[in-house]
Amino acid sequence: MRDGVSHDRHVRAGDIALAADFTSVSARVAGGATLATILHAQQVATAEVEAIVRHARSVFDVRKVRTNQPYRLEKRPDGTVRRFEYEIDGDRLLRVSRPAAEEGDLIATVLPIEKTRRAGIVRGRIDRETSSLVAAMDAAGETIDLTLALAEVFGGDIDFNTDLQPGDRFELLVEKQYRERAEQGPQEEFAGYGPILAAEFENAGHRFRAVRFTPEGGSPGYFDERGISLRRFFLKSPLKFDPVVTSGFSRSRLHPVLHEVRAHLGVDYRAPTGAPVVAVANGTVVAAGSNGGSGRMVHLRHANGYETQYLHLSSIAVRRGARVEQGEIIGRVGATGLATGPHLDYRLKKNGVFVNPVTAHRAMPPAEPVPSAPVASFAAARDRAFAAFSQPAVVDATRVAKTDAVVK
Fold first, then answer.
1. Mean of the pLDDT values across residues 31-42?
2. 384 three-class SS
3. In DSSP terms, which residues pair with 111 in a beta bridge?
4. 403 close to 385: Cβ distance less than 8 angstroms
């Protein structure tokens, strides 16, 4: 193959003089392209373009073809197609092709992309050069997706906005996924992360540990060494990591815009415009819209008499009356209303009275522990997972995957 184009001479049984010469093209979707324009640009016959689009539409919304996604086309010199493949995302492939006999009508299917799973060890530190979780994970050679996943695991115990200290360290066992690229021969490329199977985080001299475990009849969750769930009633922060607290809870604070002393009944987090804001607990949307000096605001009601408010948003992702889950994105950081710059003003009420979110979150109880019946199975899974930390950087995924097995 050269410049993304290769030629494959294919002769069907019974052919003597005339062989079908197929051209194979591997490329990426150009900006603004549609499925039809992609095919026309590759000199596919007009009738074939119409047929491919029609068949593809039966299994996939062709309006969702995205820029820079890879595709592969095999066609004859007369513009008819043997096979067209388009990667919908990292997990799914759209294929429109003819049967193996190279005759008959086209068939469209959406197929899973085959991947190889391997569990790997990732280690990192917080220091002067890598002062945030994002920087430390990047220095370890990993991406923002793993940063978010680790922050979610320990989000009930560690506020990654304020709690990180130089000398903190982390170690985790995570499933990594790889796939082969046909145009690259036998080479593999990284294709994303599976779940974190176990993790350890040392923060300000305290060690936090987590193992992923699925009780019988339940859902996967993260538990500490004693089998206590790491899922708290409230997350410690509505922002994943990196923003800085610029103003705390106060009954008397000089307002930065009005220049008068007022109560500040929340916590201000400085964060870039567009940073995602998540619900700190399951709840119902009481209000979502503009609210005077608060700018765009989301107001949630939770169980046990709690309410939360998220002010100065640039955009809102929920509607009044909707149910939201803990960790679900409800809006994005902005500077609407009376604000001097992009930040999130986060507020918490208990039984109708504003309380300090920082101290209140620390007092929130954990979720339920592992049920008593599978304690022995949990202990075995826990020990197997943490034993992997003493192993090489890549371990047997089939062995470690038992950590996340359903307990019988």
1. 94
2. helix
3. 93
4. yes
**349 vs 264, residue with greater confidence:** 349
Q: Locate 396 and state its tokens.
A: 């047997």
Q: How crowded is residue 123: how many other Cβ atoms within 10 Å of its Cβ?
A: 13
> What's the chain's average pLDDT?
82
pLDDT at 56 over 90: yes
Using one digit for the tens of pLDDT, what is the confidence trace for 305-338? 999 999 999 999 999 999 999 989 999 999 999 8
Q: Which two three-digit tokens encode residue 136?
A: 């430390």
Backbone angles phi, psi at 359, to 5 degrees: -70, -35
Q: Are strands 394-395 and 206-213 parallel, antiparallel or unpaired?
A: unpaired
- The residue whose two tokens read 């304690």 is 375
The HSE-up count of residue 204 (CA atoms within 13 Å, CB side) is 8
Q: 171 Cβ partners below 8 Å, 6+ apart?
A: 121, 122, 123, 199, 200, 389
Tell me how far the alpha carbon of residue 406 is from its chain's centroid.
24
Domain 244-362 has CATH 2.70.70.10: yes
Instruction: Give the closest residue to 238 by CA, choosing from 295, 172, 317.
Output: 317
Q: Which strands form 188-203's sheet, in the order they lie side by side?
A: 221-223, 206-213, 188-203, 169-180, 116-125, 394-395
Position 104 scores a pLDDT of 67
Cα–Cα distance, 46 to 52 (Å, whole number): 10
Q: Which fold has domain 116-231+369-404?
A: Nuclear Transport Factor 2; Chain: A, (3.10.450)
Residue 13's pLDDT band (boundaries 50, 70, 90)?
very low
The reported pLDDT for the residue numbered 71 is 94
**Fold classified for 5-112:** Nuclear Transport Factor 2; Chain: A, (3.10.450)
Domain boundaries, the chain: 5-112, 116-231+369-404, 244-362
Tell me the H-state helices in 200-300.
none
CA nearest to 126, candidates 173, 81, 158, 84: 158
Checking if the pLDDT of 371 tops 50, the result is yes
CB 384 within 8 A of CB 173: no
Same CATH fold assignment for domains 5-112 and 244-362 = no
- Stronger pLDDT, 44 or 241, i.e. the higher one: 44
Q: What is the distance between the alpha carbons of residues 20 and 43, in angstroms, rounded to a whole number?
A: 17
